[in-house]
Amino acid sequence: MKNIILTILVCFHTLFVLAQGNYYNDLDSNRRCQELKDEISKKLNRNTYTLSYDMVYNFMANYDLIKINNKDYIWDVYTYKPSGEQDVLYLPGNKCSNDAGGSSVGKCWNREHIFPASWFSSADPMYSDFHNLLPADGYINGKRGNMPHATTNSTKTQFPNGSIIGNSNIPMVYGDVFEPIDEFKGDIARIILYMSVRYQSLFNNWDNPDFIKVKGTDALKGFREDYLNMLINWHNQDPPSQKEKDRNNRIYAQQGNRNPFVDYPQFVEYIWKTSDCKAVGIKNFEQLEVNLFPNPAQSEISLSSIVPLGQKYYITDITGKTVKSGKLTQRMINTSSLNTGTYFLIIEENNTSLYGKFLIAQ
Q1: d(CA 93, CA 108)
Q2: Following DSSP, what letter does each residue of 120-134 receive, concatenated?
Q3: How far apart are CA 298 and CA 117, in angstroms?
Q4: What distance in Å separates the CA atoms of residue 129 and residue 333, rounded to the nearest whole number?
């Protein structure tokens, strides 16, 4: 019996190596930290095809499947239950019209950008990167919107497999977030980490207010340290499944690149957790809090003199929705249009993110 099991494991390993081919042969196995991240980033962008976004539906309808009672259904991380009877099942042809969402859970499925498209202004090649796209219930996809995937400390909405929308419990990642079930946290973390490595040179260009919630100012980390640590924990707690490895092979066959954290989970440790890795950049945004006054405010809020003029600013409410934005022409912002409540001010200044929290009183 042991020999049979060993033979099966060897066969699986052989097939896995054959699927990878010589993709990683030119990587220097001694590199760590930013050097390794840079080398992998170049590899992910070399000899890679930008595929049509329309091709994603065909890919998912053919490969993102589960078989139940000898029938193929679409697999979805937001509704699929790892055990027990499924509450929601979609036939491959039951996709949402024009990527719209349904009026309720279970109506249709569409294409979900795990790293939200709004964060990079829906630009290619990010928009149609197959590694960043999973099939999702259209209604839940719409409810998630541009929220980060993160852990929560409350439940505002719960979906069929236990995924929830609630308040973030990651320091400085404020507002509502979407927390997937434990079974799929690793899948999602590896997709987000892949995006942060392949497109690391573009991170500073992306200033969407929802992305700024998780964006760091250190080039090596990419994300805020507490958010990056959460992703690494998810990755470690939920290792790559066979389904994830199979999907990686199929994307490689069409797009020409691979998710390295599926193939070699230890790359996460080599890049971000090697003890002698040095920070590349400046302080994290949470260390650069701006004093705002008066606080609580009514019709206007003033900023401390450390804030330079001419920078773009965003004001978001407690859910993370942007309620006001503009350019700082003076160290005072009119807040008369804001309702009573808690708000966050975010200012982007070169590679630094400045942050302030304030209240609007009655």
Answers
A1: 9
A2: GTT-TTTTT-GGGEE
A3: 35
A4: 39
DSSP track, 29-54:
TT--HHHHHHHHHHHHHTT-----TH
pLDDT tens per residue, range 143-159:
999 999 999 999 999 99
Beta strand 176-179 pairing with 157-158: unpaired
Who's near 33: CB < 8 A, 6+ residues apart?
A: 220, 270, 271, 274, 276, 277, 278
Going along 219-263, which residue ranges are E strands? none
- Residue 153's φ and ψ, nearest 5 degrees, are -120, 15
Instruction: Specify the pTM.
Output: 0.80
Mention every residue, 6+ apart, whose C-beta is less than 8 A from residue 129: 195, 198, 255
Cα dihedral 37→40→41→46 (10° resolution): 160
Phi, psi of 330 (to 5 degrees): -155, 165
Q: Are 324 and 316 in contact (CB under 8 A)?
A: no
pLDDT in tens, 116-173: 999 999 999 999 999 999 999 999 999 999 999 999 999 999 999 999 999 999 987 8
Residue limits of CATH 2.60.40.10 in the chain: 288-360
Q: Hey, what CATH topology would domain 288-360 get?
A: Immunoglobulin-like (2.60.40)
d(CA 258, CA 245): 10
